[in-house]
Amino acid sequence: MSPVAPRALARRLKGLREEQWPDVGLTQAQLAQALGGLSISLISSWENADNPIRPPIKRLEAYATLFATRRSLEGGFGLLPLDNLTDEERDRRKGLLDELLWLREGNEPAPAKSEAADLWTFEDPEQWITIVCAPLPQEYRRHLSYADPESPDFVSLYTYADPDALIELFGHLRARNPESKVTFHTSEELTADDYTSHLVLLGGVDFNTATREVIERANLPVKQVARDAVGAHGGFRVTENGESKLIEPELDEEGHLLEDVAHFYRGVSPFNRKRTVTVCNGMYSRGTLGAVRALTDGRFLDRNTAYVRERFGYGKPFSIISRVPVVGGQGLTPDWTLEENRLHEWPEAAG
């Protein structure tokens, strides 16, 4: 047996406790109790990569059951009966148990599946992925010589709204899908073929007509209220428990943005059922960037992805509206694992 393999199992067991739900902060004592009143020293010996001890198979089965679902945390950390697990949770348990048993038998760690790692990784390498931005309105271009096609210094990117979100996402998509064709256009430049690719829409209904087209076709209890000419800041109107409410950004008396709101939606494309559509939107640009960075920022990507998988399942449509605090003029990445950051979710109940 390779000495690396038992160390890999020890590191994996420790990682499950510390990293599966980082917002919870599970201790060895809590894990020992959940596994049937074991000693803390026994848990420590299984997690000790310097001098690892292999747990019995039945204990690995318990690990897989515990960490297959966040519902293990409800009412105190503990095992759920197997017949209480959903089909998706059973699949997750089986995959985790297979991995742990593989490591227990002295094998090297298997590479992680891309689907479990990142919502921006698509399976078909031949597909097209199209990012759609709004064109920056003419009134905002007037004093930008770089946005004037007649200027020697013309830069086409200056004619795009939300360029910071575009740059963040374009690089991430190219890295995650190296064999795919990833392009970006304004909503005015879209062709018929672009509409039937994987669509990623940046920005809201104020400027991005493609976002408006998709949201109107999606069966979502979320509608964006555009900012109007008299100074209203708009917001997202949601229907929850039969009641309607407006989720608004927060500004101070001088008009400085204190907190934006971000909307992330992923669903089946209304233009091609074998492709997806994703909306990353905010009432202001920092909200749009926050919606993007929720699943590209390396410090939050894993936990936010795990939350989505646990809450909504694999490949199912979902929508999250979240806070984007603004500190020092910078929008912060939203942590979806914190309940106070999630202002609205759809579907309302886990699938």
UniProtKB/TrEMBL annotation:
All residue ranges annotated as the HTH cro/C1-type domain in the record: 13-48
Gene3D superfamilies: lambda repressor-like DNA-binding domains
CDD domains: HTH_XRE (cd00093)
GO molecular function, one term: DNA binding
Highest taxon, organism lineage: Bacteria
Pfam entry (one): HTH_31
Alphabetized InterPro entries for the sequence: Cro/C1-type_HTH (IPR001387), Lambda_DNA-bd_dom_sf (IPR010982)
Protein name as catalogued: Transcriptional regulator, contains XRE-family HTH domain
Species name: Amycolatopsis pretoriensis
